[in-house]
Amino acid sequence: MHLRVSVAAAALLSACSTGMPMSAPALLPSDTLSFSPASSDSLETVRIELTVQADTDGETVFLFPEAWGPDENLGQLVSNRAVFDAATGAALPAEIDENRVIVSAVPDQILKLSYDIRQDYQGLPQWGVQRMPGMRPVLQPTYASLIGHTILPSVEGRDPELRVTFTGFPLGAAFSQPTPSGTSAPIALSTAQDSLYAFGAYRFGETDTGVRTAILGEWTLPDADIAFTTSSVLSLAGEAFEDAAFDQYFLAVTPLPDLPEGSSVIGTGLTESFLLLATRNADPENLTHTITHEILHEWITRRMGQTDEATDPARMWFTEGFTEYYTQLTLLGSGETSLEEFLQNMNALWAEYEASPVNTMPAGDLIDHIWDSRETERLPYQRGAMLALHWDTLARAEGRSLDDAIAALLDRAETIRETGEAPLLPDDAIHAAVETVIGPRFEADLATYIQGGAKIPLTALTLPDCLSVESPPEAPSRLVLVPGADRAVCRATLAGPFARQAR
Length: 503
Hints:
The protein is an alpha+beta fold. It has helices at residues 148-151, 189-193, 223-240, 284-296, 316-319, 321-334, 339-355, 366-369, 374-397, 402-418, 427-438, 441-451, 487-495; strands at 3-5, 32-39, 42-53, 59-63, 78-85, 94-96, 100-104, 110-118, 138-139, 143-147, 154-155, 161-166, 173-175, 187-188, 196-200, 203-206, 211-215, 249-256, 265-270, 273-279, 467-470, 478-481. The strands form 5 sheets. Strands 1-19-20-18-17-16 form a 6-stranded mixed sheet. Strands 5-8-3-2-12-14 form a 6-stranded mixed sheet. Strands 6-7-4-11 form a 4-stranded antiparallel sheet. The longest helix has 24 residues, at 374-397. 45% of the residues are buried.
């Protein structure tokens, strides 16, 4: 799970009743995942029907999620679970508890698991009710926004292929994969879980570059600019990493509740898609930054392979820190930000790090503490981005770059996929790829600053010749342009292949 969060809030969840009468569902073909509104005049309850073949051992176990990222107690969202024989519509006996449904059936029997999803809090998402408003399922009378990880069960022991279908959504429906005539191509259930769903009163659109959008409400960044930014980042990153992987992409934008002061932007990336949540007063620069950051997660690390989710906070220096560094390069190279703004952004990261009360926390400690505070959430972004600038400079001095490490990890994953296996991304693969382009300095820096948690001096970072460190009295050190340096050359040096195009 990858999140970019500009404001954190405490989680205080309130439960509400979700009971509704359930009738036997209409018959569907095998291997489908169907979404429909439980009522014709509201999207406050969405019915989900998963139709799969029974396990060959005679017992099929459906496992519902209990937690995802900062969200817990997800069982409170689910009601009216029942299992039917898809051929006859007859209800089947099942053992049902909060997170499991166990069904005994003959091996060739087609099972239909049916259940309802409804908010477990009253009204719109609110700061202080949900830790990250809008990540937990939102189901309102006129629209619904859902993340598969929070609402879809797994089938124990296997990952069935299925088609996703939508019926009964008069204002529209879309998810992370295209659905011509309301039905997707076959995808794995795990892909459906790692997907985003938008129903109802969104503005649904599609560009000629294959970017699909679902935008709710009015924003400081026009719909066309949101779509164009998405298309541009996909093109730039695909070229820089030598992995132009996406023929289509889905982006959904949903408002967050207003804050008493300031604004907030939250983003989470999923398979070929991401969800952007923001207060309506979010400025265009913040929206563009988050769009760029989340799309880059498609390469760092989604296309590299599955990491160990339980220990992901310990490698966020890479998954988030490198992504933040490449976000700044993409914005600079595309012309979205100037060289001066690039330095301002990197200096803002450094100032946050310099002032952070947790800036000496070892990466391993983040496994248990990443969600403790905004400071712990932001630490790997700050530490990883600054070190990425340092390491990229070291690599470029030897005729290489961090881009080569990213490309090598992508190539490694593709080689594994060609064998029919799903690629995994262990830490030793990340370390080996980065060390190959940087040299022995990488392992020393990794042990000292990331694993050991030592505070990074800005003056210890290796910088391009056009940049230097200025240390004003009683203020954080900062990166500055060397007097007399050519701005255009410095921009091209920093942006590298991301400067090949301009938006």
